[in-house]
Model the fold of this input.
Amino acid sequence: MVGLSIGEKHFIQGGIAQDIRSDGRKRLTPRPINVKTGVISQANGSARVRMGATDVIASVKAELGRPTALQPDKGKVFINVDCSPTAAPMFEGRGGEELSAELSVALRHCLLGGKSGSGAGIELSSLVVVEGKICWDLYIDGLVVSSDGNLLDALGAAIKAALSNTGIPRVNVAAGASGDEQPEVDVSDEEFLQFDTSKVPVIVTLTKVGKHYIVDATSEEESQMSSAVSISVNRQGHICGLTKRGGAGLDPSIILDMVSVAKTVSEQLINTLDSQIAAAEAGEDES
Amino acid sequence: MEYVSPEGLRLDGRRPMEMRQIRGEIGVVDKADGSAVFEMGNTKVIAAVYGPREVPNRSQQMNDRALVRCEYTMANFSTGDRMRKPKGDRRSTEISLVIRQTMEACIMTHLMPRTQIDIFVQVLQADGGKSRCLIAAIGTRSACINAATLALSDAGIPMRDLVTSCSAGYLNSTPLLDLNYVEDSAGGADVTLGIMPKLDKVTLLQMDAKLPLDIFENVMQLAIEGCKAVATYIRQVLLENTKQLEYRRGT
Done:
């Protein structure tokens, strides 16, 4: 994907070893992040996040559905990511499917919690309209428009921003339905409920290059990685999910070390993201 | 249904010969050789161009000209109802083909033998109400071609002219410029036209439904006017971009 000469590879690796990367950042400095909300007018909520040359869009669509029999008190959330061929010619045709699947699975791990639905970053019980009968299905779609590394963190940030931008219509349930009948509902198109996103975690990926690990790697740096650990952390500093990618094995003690570093980095990230989202929302209201 | 009110206004408040709001922007995908966003009303399209570059698949290489390829994709969230797995269906293949043929006609492929040029068009938003993603896809053709033209110019690929596209239709005995989704699905005639405005040549012409010959002439004339208006706008965007580049270079 990234064609690098031996000299360039040494330059990147050497820079990381000496704590100054090719774009002048330190190992644990992320790129500036730029958030724009409400970019897709047909969706219930959407956001576009840019980190350097990485550009992703997330959209949230809500549809009424039926809760599963196993979890009658919980709504459903579906996360799906697509890699547009505009990001790289290798995503043409079915070429992007492998990466799309990898990203979708990682996002589900990081945001949705276990099979029982407990520990999810997104509050699933708030999506229920009538227990056991009607709930909201949230379809979260990510689209990679331009790719320069660290797609998972960008997608995580975009989904968080899109969820804060999401308005779920208020639903009035007609009383009187009993037993197995499906109650009639009236979906309001004027009143919207704001989604509580304070518990939605952010994702921090630490990419290990040589002996050190870096945050927010560019695609050149990612091509030199031995392995990467993506950790999703919420505002309380709790770990909500974790995935490891890449071929090489990691020492367990290093993983623990990475987790604690991710925790400190995530604090900054949550703060910048929150202020960016607030600014984007304010800007949208004005226009 | 009444598509043109007695006062001469259309459903979205436009006059019969008025286009939707158009907006173009260059350089939205940093990693691509050329890229652009083009919006026509609610339709929003990103185009990215990679190339001219080495042909990865040797058997497709042509020794006398460049290979032009195009892929059209619609995002899951681009239509009113969520689409499920639209990749590689017949309609997008057809639109890919239309865009490829239209752009190939204007690219000077003989100057770049043994190379490949990829045009990727991604629909972010298609004008359209609920669930009729098929018609919504057809309505994006013009925007796709305009976006591709901008992206190709941004990539600095030699072209004979800037191809621009616009549609026109005929409803309530009135020729209408640049149909929106509701008008498109009304079932009247719909002419999509692509022209090279400087050379005054038609590179794309598609029509569904039937029209009497003399009315077709009027409708096509209207579409030509639309294309020329788009061309003027695209030229402006390119000029503005070049000025910016010059300014940044400091000359």
Remarks:
- Chain A has five helices and twelve strands.
- Chain A touches chain B through 31 residues (CB under 8 Å).
- The longest helix of chain A spans residues 252-286.
- Residues 206 and 258 of chain A are 7 Å apart (CA to CA).
